[in-house]
Amino acid sequence: LRSCALPQDMAGLKVLVTAGPTQEAIDPVRFITNHSSGKMGYSIARICMLRGADVTLVTGRTALEPPMFVDTIHVISALDMFRAVTSNSQGKDIIIKAAAVADYRPAQVSEEKVKKSDSELALSLERTDDILKYLGEHKAPGQFLCGFSMETEHMVENSRKKLVNKHLDMIVANNLKEEGAGFAGNTNAVTFITPDTQTELGIMDKEDVAMCLLDEILKRIR
Ligand code: CTP
Ligand code: CA
């Protein structure tokens, strides 16, 4: 019902959202991942759609239903996400990267199940591409780029570094150690950081965080 009351203030805007974790295979039965539930990104995609935007969602594996009226692309690894995002970023007015992308993947993926032995096992990991950094370096004029940042310490400082290094217009910082924030729950406590502003929100529902985030972005692109 609430959705019926939403203003259509994003009509005509093309938005790309990423959500969820990536999975990096070790062998056919195992992978490396993180605790991302996808809820924040899915909420953003849904609210963009309800406010009239044309939305593409690139998502890692989650337990969530894809939002209605959103063009949803399912991916597994960071490499898949890189390909899906870079081939869908052209012509987008706003890109919001809420996904928790693995920074490292196993350097070799075993074709057969790795069998245990009595000795220690070391996994060699290699870096994945930084998708957001790539987008920042190849940004079209007028495109608004928003990242997310998960930290357990020095949240604002570290997030500001990401804003600058990745050429972002905004970064949404989360402190994982804060009550009511982070990956799994339905609430989040975030700080919006731009080159010249910093806005701290209290604990709120992820859909309300999405509403506030989109209000902040619209103020800056219009
Ligand atoms: N990101 C990305 N591609 C990666 C890693 C991160 O696009 N390979 C994006 C995330 O989607 C997020 C932002 O970069 O929007 C910040 O992610 P985060 O993990 O907080 O920061 P990193 O830059 O990866 O640095 P670190 O993990 O060392 O804090
Ligand atoms: Ca990271």
TrEMBL record:
Keywords, sorted A to Z: Decarboxylase, Flavoprotein, FMN, Ligase, Lyase, Magnesium, Metal-binding, Multifunctional enzyme
Pathway: Cofactor biosynthesis; coenzyme A biosynthesis; CoA from (R)-pantothenate: step 2/5; Cofactor biosynthesis; coenzyme A biosynthesis; CoA from (R)-pantothenate: step 3/5
Sections of the chain in a coiled coil: none
Catalysed transformations (reactions): (R)-4'-phosphopantothenate + L-cysteine + CTP = N-[(R)-4-phosphopantothenoyl]-L-cysteine + CMP + diphosphate + H(+); N-[(R)-4-phosphopantothenoyl]-L-cysteine + H(+) = (R)-4'-phosphopantetheine + CO2
Co-factor binding comment: Binds 1 FMN per subunit.
Record flagged with keyword tRNA processing: no
One term under GO cellular component: phosphopantothenoylcysteine decarboxylase complex
Residues holding CTP: D103, K113, F148, K162, K166
Sequence ranges assigned to domain DNA/pantothenate metabolism flavoprotein C-terminal in this UniProt record: 10-219
Signal peptide stretch: none
One BP term from GO: coenzyme A biosynthetic process
GO MF annotation list: FMN binding; metal ion binding; phosphopantothenate--cysteine ligase activity; phosphopantothenoylcysteine decarboxylase activity
E.C. number(s) listed in UniProt: 4.1.1.36, 6.3.2.5
Cofactor(s) this protein cannot do without: FMN; Mg(2+)
Stretches for region Phosphopantothenate--cysteine ligase: 15-222
General function of this protein: Catalyzes two sequential steps in the biosynthesis of coenzyme A. In the first step cysteine is conjugated to 4'-phosphopantothenate to form 4-phosphopantothenoylcysteine. In the second step the latter compound is decarboxylated to form 4'-phosphopantotheine. Catalyzes two steps in the biosynthesis of coenzyme A. In the first step cysteine is conjugated to 4'-phosphopantothenate to form 4-phosphopantothenoylcysteine, in the latter compound is decarboxylated to form 4'-phosphopantotheine.
Family: In the C-terminal section; belongs to the PPC synthetase family.
This protein's name: Coenzyme A biosynthesis bifunctional protein CoaBC
Source organism (scientific name): Extibacter muris
Name of the coding gene: coaBC
Section covered of the full-length record: 177 to 398 of 398
